[in-house]
Amino acid sequence: MPAQSPGASGLISQPGANFTVKDSELPRNFSIIVYGDMRFTDPSDTTAANPDARRDLVARIADLHPDVLILTGDVPWRGTFKADYDEFTLETAAWRAEKLRVYPALGNHEFGGKGADDPLKDWWSVFPQLTGRRWYSVALGSRVYLMCLDSDADLTPGTPQRRWLEDQIAHLSPKVEFVLLAMHHPPVADIQTKEHVDHNPRPNEISLRDYLSQIAPSAHAQFIVASGHIHNYERAEVDGVTYLVSGGGGAHPYEVDRTPQDRYQATDFPNFHYILFHVEGRQLKATMYRLGLPIATPPEWQARDSFVVTAK
User: Fold this and answer.
1) Where are the alpha helices (DSSP H) in the chain?
2) If you average pLDDT over residues 278-284, what whole number do you get?
3) How far is CA 26 from the centre of its chain?
C-alpha cells in the first residue's frame, strides 16, 4: 500500500480500504471473533483483570482459529508500560503460532500511564502494520468491510475521523453486504443511573449513532457496531443498526442494570465472553459464548445469545 505522510491529525489515510484480504484468501463461509477489554498486565494483578479468564479466552480463540479476530480496545492495562505489552505478546503467542489476522481498535487504556512522549509507542511496536493509523479500514473479501475507529479521537461532524468515515461509507463497493465498525466507547448501551455512570454513551459516540441512523435505512449494506469499555455484554438495535458491547475479555467485570432496549436480559454475571460470527451465504450468524464460572478444567463455554443479520 502506498505510504503517505501523516497530516495534522497524525493519521495516514487514503481512499478505499487501508488493508485488503482477498476473497481467494478466505473460505466462502468464514469466521470472525470479536471481543475486548483484556487488560494484559502482570498476572499477579488480579484487581485490573482476571488473568485466568483472560488466558482461557486467548487459548479458546487460538483453538477456534477464526479467519478474522477483532479487538474492541483496552488491550493493555497501561499503554505507556512496555511490560504490559510484553505480557500481551507472551500470553498471545498461540495467536501468532496460528497466524491469526488480528485487527485492534484503540481504547482509553492504550493512552493510560505516564511518562511517555508518545503513549502509542509500544502499540505501534506490537502492531507495526498500523503505525500512524489510529483508525483504518479492512476489506474482508468483497462482502464484509471492517472499520476500526478511535473513540479517543473526535467523531463529530466535520472532524478528520468523521470525514474519513463518511468518505469510506460513500465509496463502499456495491458488493459489500455487511459493514462492521469496531470501537471502544459504545454509541449505544444500557443507561446506568447507579454505578459506572461515567461509562454511559458520550456525545462523541452518540453523534456517530445519529449519523448511522440517518444513512442505514437507505444503505445497501447492513451495519453492525461492536464496542467495549463496559466490561459486560449487551446487544441492541437502533434504526436497523445492530449495536454490541463486548467488553468481557478478562478486565474487572461491571454489573449493568439492563434496560428494555437490551436484547440480552440474562442475569449471568460476570460475562467473560467472545462473540463468534459466521458469514454464511447472505447471512451473518452470531453467537456469544460465555466462560462458565467457576472456571473449570477444561473451561466450559456456554452459548448464551444468538442472532442473525441478513443482507439486504
Assistant:
1) 51-64, 82-91, 93-97, 121-126, 160-170, 203-215
2) 96
3) 20
Amino acid at 161: Q
Q: What pLDDT is stored for residue 118 in this prediction?
A: 84
Cα 266 versus chain centre, distance: 22
Place of cell 478466505: 26
- Classify residue 99 by burial, with Cβ atoms within 10 Å: 0-12, 13-18, 19+: exposed
Residue 164 has phi, psi (to 5 degrees) of -60, -45
Give the pLDDT of residue 7.
34
Number of helices (H) and strands (E) in the chain: give both, helices first: 6, 13
Residue 198 backbone dihedrals phi, psi, to 5 degrees:
-70, -5
Over residues 55-78, the mean pLDDT reads: 98
Q: What is the pLDDT of residues 74-112, one digit of tens each?
A: 999 999 999 999 999 999 999 999 999 999 999 999 998
Instruction: Supply 297's cell numbers.
Output: 478444567
Helix (H) or strand (E) holding 307: strand 301-310
What's the pTM? 0.94
Distance CA 179, CA 224 (A): 6
C-alpha–C-alpha distance, residues 95 and 64, integer Å: 10
What's the CATH number for 19-310?
3.60.21.10
Domain boundaries, the chain: 19-310
User: Hey, what amino acid is at 132?
Assistant: G
Taking CA atoms, 101 is separated from 95, 121, 305, in Å, by 9, 21, 25
Query: What's the chain's length in residues?
Result: 312
Secondary structure class of 297 (helix, strand, coil):
coil
Q: How far apart are CA 181 and CA 72, in angstroms?
A: 10
Q: What angle do CA 251, 185, 42 make, to 5 degrees?
A: 25
CA distance 132 to 136: 10
